[in-house]
């Protein structure tokens, strides 16, 4: 164990044992990845909210659904998740109506329902991507930091056993550099947990809007085939 009078953060990290430094480096990597996903997911959810609101305004404006479907199909990536769900259902409905003219409503609506549910699941999978990493980072990072702290304290006391006289000045640096691992673990975990809970709530709200739209759109299609 290296004893130093410099208690600055960088000095403590540089004088920590190699296993503790590796744990700190791992936690730093987790933190960087977490913040990357946090910013990317925040932008994606905001974009999904804006695109959903714009499409709902267009859909409920009373225009022709076939024309709306053509407009969505020409710019699917720009229209958003809800527009793609509508496009999947409307495309399948038009195909079913052409191939089953005069058929019963149940047969005509079964295809659009399956198509929209499949599109809905794809869009939700995309929105929920990387949430598992944030959940794992939030739950595991404190324990990884604690492992570094335990290892650092153990290493500090092993070093003290070789000294003739142990003083607070000789103990403090080793304990401080070990506790930094826990601090870094919490720094990585807290934003990940907060972001995960916030994003999960936001995505649940978007999911409810998608579900409601699918049911309402199917009701509109059902009235058209009567």
TrEMBL record:
One of its GO terms (cellular component) is plasma membrane. Residues 81-210 form the MotA/TolQ/ExbB proton channel domain. The keyword Nucleus does not apply. The chain crosses the membrane at residues 20-40, 131-158, 178-199. GO terms for biological process: bacteriocin transport; cell division; protein import. Keywords: Cell cycle, Cell division, Cell inner membrane, Cell membrane, Membrane, Transmembrane, Transmembrane helix. It is found in: Cell inner membrane; Cell membrane. InterPro entries: ExbB/TolQ_transport, MotA_ExbB_proton_chnl, Tol-Pal_TolQ. It is a multi-pass membrane protein. The Tol-Pal system is composed of five core proteins: the inner membrane proteins TolA, TolQ and TolR, the periplasmic protein TolB and the outer membrane protein Pal. They form a network linking the inner and outer membranes and the peptidoglycan layer. NCBIfam families: tolQ. Belongs to the ExbB/TolQ family. Part of the Tol-Pal system, which plays a role in outer membrane invagination during cell division and is important for maintaining outer membrane integrity. This is Tol-Pal system protein TolQ. It comes from Achromobacter arsenitoxydans SY8. The lineage of its organism: Bacteria, Pseudomonadati, Pseudomonadota, Betaproteobacteria, Burkholderiales.
């Amino acid at each position: 164990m290296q004893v130093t009078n410099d208690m600055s953060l960088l000095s403590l990290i540089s004088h920590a044992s190699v296993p503790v430094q590796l744990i700190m480096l791992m936690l730093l990597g987790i933190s960087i990845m977490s913040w990357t996903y946090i910013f990317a997911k925040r932008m994606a959810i905001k974009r999904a909210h804006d695109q959903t609101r714009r499409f709902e305004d267009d859909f409920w404006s009373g225009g022709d659904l076939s024309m709306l479907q053509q407009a969505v199909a020409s710019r699917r990536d720009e229209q958003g998740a809800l527009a793609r769900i509508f496009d999947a259902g409307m495309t399948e409905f038009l195909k079913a109506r052409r191939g089953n003219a005069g058929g019963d409503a149940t047969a005509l609506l079964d295809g659009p329902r399956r198509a929209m549910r499949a599109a809905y699941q794809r869009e939700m999978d995309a929105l929920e991507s990387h949430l598992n990493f944030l959940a794992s980072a939030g739950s595991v990072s404190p324990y990884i930091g604690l492992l570094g702290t335990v290892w650092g304290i153990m290493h500090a006391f092993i070093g003290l056993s070789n000294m003739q006289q142990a003083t607070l000045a000789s103990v403090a640096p080793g304990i401080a550099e070990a506790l930094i691992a826990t601090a870094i673990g919490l720094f990585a975990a807290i934003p990940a947990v907060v972001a995960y809970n916030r994003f999960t709530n936001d995505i649940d709200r978007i999911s409810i809007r998608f579900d409601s739209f699918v049911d309402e759109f199917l009701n509109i299609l059902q009235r058209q085939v009567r």
